[in-house]
């Protein structure tokens, strides 16, 4: 390498670059014959006496699919496929977990949109990647009892424990709620209880007195975190 000379490299694909030790990126695979012409300060030229071949291997095919690509939180297991054999695989599932299997299965921890990346490497150490998005939706359902037995020792706050077995507060149970509205009506259509707080249910009292044993109508409206709205109507039996 003579620093006072001009090096002109023919890359075998119609491109030329200059410099004593240039860097060049081929845009497609193939075998390329490289020649170099050296021009000194006296404008004398010399062409490389030998022919140098460069082999550019093709990129491996990165194919990533998911089944299903969208589901709800009840069935958050996704089955992935890397498509092509004889490669090394590295999956990133978008939730901090990963796998080196060709066709892994993954269970997502919660509702959301997850960006998945697959990186593949072949025997020539050539790399490629592909991406896809997995969507885990909320499950829109309200669990509502058809009977309850209020505490006879006086009204409470309406707060409830979903793990409790006493069943002394009537409430609707659902997740991913942004807005909530529950109303209770007696048999004459009179509104006797109303709440906008999903953590507060009806304790069976009206104006400080325990309501009589009867069937009461209820109406629940819910807006979920993604804007979906549902309305449920039904009745509940108050047992004393």
Molecular structure report:
It is a single chain. The protein has 240 residues and is an all-beta fold. The chain has strands spanning 6-10, 16-18, 30-39, 45-47, 52-56, 65-67, 70-72, 77-81, 88-92, 98-99, 105-107, 112-121, 127-137, 147-148, 177-185, 191-195, 205-206, 209-210, 214-224, 229-238. The protein has 3 domains: 6-56, Immunoglobulins (Immunoglobulin-like, Sandwich); 65-137, Immunoglobulin-like (Sandwich), CATH 2.60.40.10; 147-238, Sandwich (Immunoglobulin-like). The mean pLDDT is 91. The strands form 5 sheets. Strands 1, 2, 3, 4 and 5 form a 5-stranded antiparallel sheet that branches. Strands 7-13-12-9-10 form a 5-stranded mixed sheet, with no helix packed on it. It is built from no helices and 20 strands.
Task: Outline the fold blueprint.
Blueprint lengths: L5 E5 L5 E3 L11 E10 L5 E3 L4 E5 L8 E3 L2 E3 L4 E5 L6 E5 L5 E2 L5 E3 L4 E10 L5 E11 L9 E2 L28 E9 L5 E5 L9 E2 L2 E2 L3 E11 L4 E10 L2
Parallel strand pairs: 7-13, 14-20
Antiparallel strand pairs: 1-2, 1-3, 3-4, 3-5, 6-8, 8-11, 9-10, 9-12, 12-13, 15-16, 15-19, 17-18, 19-20
């Amino acid at each position: 390498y003579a620093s006072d000379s001009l090096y002109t490299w023919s890359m075998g694909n119609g491109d030329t670059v200059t410099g004593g030790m240039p860097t060049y990126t081929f845009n497609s695979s193939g075998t390329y014959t490289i020649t170099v012409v050296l021009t000194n300060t006296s404008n004398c030229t010399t062409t490389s006496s030998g022919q140098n071949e460069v082999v550019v291997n093709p990129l491996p095919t990165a194919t990533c699919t998911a089944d299903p690509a969208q589901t709800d939180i009840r069935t958050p297991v996704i089955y992935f496929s890397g498509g092509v054999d004889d490669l090394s695989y590295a999956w990133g599932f978008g939730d901090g977990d990963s796998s080196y299997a060709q066709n892994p299965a993954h269970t997502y921890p919660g509702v959301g949109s997850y960006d998945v990346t697959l990186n593949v490497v072949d025997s020539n150490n050539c790399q490629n990647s592909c991406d896809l998005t997995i969507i885990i939706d909320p499950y829109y359902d309200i669990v509502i009892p058809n009977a309850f037995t209020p505490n006879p020792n006086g009204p409470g706050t309406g707060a409830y424990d979903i793990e409790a077995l006493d069943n002394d507060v009537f409430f609707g149970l659902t997740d991913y709620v942004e807005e909530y509205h529950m109303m209770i009506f007696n048999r004459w259509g009179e509104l006797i209880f109303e709440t906008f707080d999903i953590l507060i249910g009806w304790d069976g009292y009206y104006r400080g007195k325990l309501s009589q044993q009867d069937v009461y109508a209820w109406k629940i409206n819910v807006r979920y975190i993604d804007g979906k709205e549902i309305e449920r109507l039904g009745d509940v039996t108050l047992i004393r």
